[in-house]
Structures are given as C-alpha cells and as structure tokens.
User: What shape does this take?
Amino acid sequence: MTIYLLAGLLLPFAGTTLGAACVFFLKNELKPGVQKTLLGFASGVMVAASVWSLLIPSMEMSESMGRLSFIPALAGLLAGFAFLLLMDIAIPHMHLDSDQAEGPKCRLPRTTMLLLAVTLHNIPEGMAVGVVFAGVLSGEAQITSAGALALAIGIAIQNFPEGAVISLPLRGGMPLSDELNNERQTENCSGRTDFDIETSDDFQSIQSVPGTQSTKSVQNDQSAQSTQSVHSAQNAKNARSTHSAQNIKNAQNAQSLQTQSTKGMSRPKAFLCGMLSGIVEPVGAVITILLSRLVTPVLPYLLSFAAGAMLYVVVEELIPESSTGEHSNLGTIGFAAGFALMMVLDVALG
Assistant: This one.
C-alpha cells in the first residue's frame, strides 16, 4: 500500500517535470498542430478520469440512497464548478493563447500570470488524487489501490504535455501585450506639437491683418510680420528637432523592450517554472490524505467535487485552446485518444 501511495503522489508531479524537461531538447515552441493534439489528449484524459474514477464511484458509494443516489454526485459536481469559477474570478491569470489578463487587475508580470493559470487548473487534479487515495485508506470506499493508481497514471500522462506547453513558451519568449504596443504607438505616432499649433495660430493671426490701414502702418505690420515669421519658423524648427529626438528615444526604448520581451528565460529557469507549476498537485493530495478521517463521511461529495473542478478546467481552458483556429480536428483526435486510454486504464487496473 505504501508503494501505491508514494507512486500516486509522485507520478502526476513527475509527468509535469518530464514535460517541462522538453525545454532542454527542443529549440522552439511546439508546432500549433502538436500543441492542439496534446491539449486535446489532456482533455480526454481528464474527462474520462472525472467519469470513471470520480463520478461513478461517487454514485456507487451512495447506493443506499436508492433512486436519490445521484444527489451527492450532482451536489459535488456543481460545487466543483462553482469553486473553480470563483477561483478563476479571484486570481489574476493569463492563458497561453491570449494577451489579456483575467481576474482582478494587477501589475504582475505576464510570466507569473501564465504560471498562475496552470497552477489554478492543477488544483483539482491534486484534489482528485488525494480524495481517491483517502478513500482507499479509509477502507470504506469502493475504490481499490489499483484504481487509484490508474487515476494517478492518467493524470501524469496528461501532465506531460502541460509541462511542455508551459516551459517552451517561457524559453522562447513571448510578445508584448496589446496594451503596451498601443501605448508605444501613442507615444511614437503623436500628432502636431504645441509649437506647430502655436505657429499655425501665429500665421492665421498675421493673415487676418486688415487692408485699410495707412502705408506706414502697413509697413510696420509687414516688418512685424516678417520678424514674427522668423521667430515662428525658428520655434517650429526647434520643435521639430525636439520631436524628432523624442521619437528616436521612444523608438530605442521600444526596441529595448521588444528585445527583452522576446529574449525569453534561460533553459534551467524555464524548466524550473514549468516544474513548479505542478507542485500544487502532490501538496494538495497530501493535505487531503492527512484529513482522510475527516473526509470519509463526505467522500461521495468530495469525489464529485473534484470531478466538477476538473471538468470546469476542460471546458474553460483546454477544449477552447485545442479547438480554435486551424488544426482543430487534431484536438478532437487527441481528445478521443486520451479518453480511450484513461477508460482502459481505469477498467483494466481498477
């Protein structure tokens, strides 16, 4: 039993770590088709795990309720959805295919928000492993050690592409957000300067001199006009020089920011960030197992709660990322393969 427990705790984290290690072997990010296939595969594994390893055992444990045995599964499922929805709203994060942050407004770096997004969706996976093994340890649940191990193996398999998907973009660098680009365009593409406006006003005021004045007044006006035109031209020249220097400075700053944004992390740092994104899984599982005596009475609810949280992640993040744009059929194929594999593992090992 101890071997099953250790394997169940470490396998999901090992899957994330191995996926993050791809940053040492691959030079560039995964191709869109490969990425969509892997995300679809992860979606299929999570859906199958939610059904075969969590929802069905939850209803089997509530058979004594007769026709109402669906109530714990339904209540936990909806609670899991609601919990992840609230976390999604309360925690600032950003998805890989978007430059727009979600959740509360903050000034966190884009890398941090990407890691928060992955960590957020790893929470239900750690809960699922912990709840299943807590049921095994209690001895009262209709869950075998092999079935719990099958769930851990399935989550480890789907964690592999997730580790690669998060670490490779961190290594390759990420484009600046649209907000920064718009800000730069505003600075570099500003319109006329205040000096230009003043010069235009000066010329307009000069042209509005009446023509019914005496010859002396006209001469004085012409002299004043000539002097004013020289000063205005000088001001305009100075303004253009200042504006050009500012444009050059802005362009240099923009180039420096662009270089920093596309440089990316070093391979060890990108690997470390990808690996740490999965640390929440064994931590959550250990906490749940330590509370196994407390969770046993409500185990059917907790099993379905973990299923609801996992399904929320699939519907909110994985499926949209695998089905938008080109090669969406590859995501569908990956989903089918992942679902079939997890179903076979659960039935064969459980």
Q: What stands out?
A: The radius of gyration is 31 Å. The chain has 13 helices and no strands. The mean pLDDT is 74.
